[in-house]
Design brief:
The protein is of the alpha+beta class. The protein has 2 domains: 90 residues, Roll (PH-domain like), CATH 2.30.29; 51 residues. The chain is built from 3 helices and 7 strands, in the order E-H-H-E-E-E-E-E-E-H. Helix 1 packs antiparallel against helix 2. The longest helix is centred in the N-terminal third of the chain and has 25 residues.
Length: 164
């Protein structure tokens, strides 16, 4: 790709998972060992029904982590080309949603509502879309600034094709 056709911005956003798969295996091993030892103690005390609940806890923790790792397969790709701003979302099942916005009119908004994390919204010609929902508050603000900077460079570039 030559410099004339290279995008001014090309970001791929993925949900962050703080526990890698190896850490998950270690955590599950520790939980299983603790549940087994606790289960032995409860059986020795005659409270054998508790063992079923300890097993259910292990299963629920395993399911919660599997769901979390499945959600990590989602992504958003943001690309600023000479003639368009493109948002390509891929959900965890692999379905793709593609949106194209006119960069000349594109506005980046950081909306703070209540005590929750701010939302980053892109608006152009009456169409609004929210991006980076799975990012943390500081990452969302950083993302908004990166897009604003790329749009400022795009608007200053003499080679961009503009619809006015």
């Amino acid at each position: 790709m030559d410099e004339a056709t290279a995008p001014l911005l090309d970001l791929t956003l993925n949900p962050h998972r703080s526990l890698p798969p190896r850490g998950f295996a270690v955590l599950m091993g520790i939980l299983c060992a603790a549940s087994f030892l606790s289960g032995c103690l409860f059986v020795a005390l005659g409270a054998w029904p508790v063992v079923g609940f300890l097993g259910a806890d292990i299963v629920l923790v395993w399911i919660a982590f599997r769901v979390s790792y499945a959600r990590a397969a989602a992504s958003e790709r943001l690309t600023l080309h000479a003639d368009r701003f493109e948002i390509v979302r891929t959900d965890r099942a692999g379905r793709v949603d593609r949106r194209t916005l006119e960069p000349y009119w594109l506005k980046v908004r950081i909306e703070h509502r209540g005590a929750g994390a701010p939302a980053v919204r892109l608006a152009s010609h009456g169409r609004t879309t929210t991006i980076g929902r799975f990012l943390g508050p500081a990452e969302r603000i950083e993302l908004a600034h990166m897009i604003e900077e790329a749009l400022a460079r795009w608007r200053q570039s003499p080679s961009t094709s503009r619809i006015e």
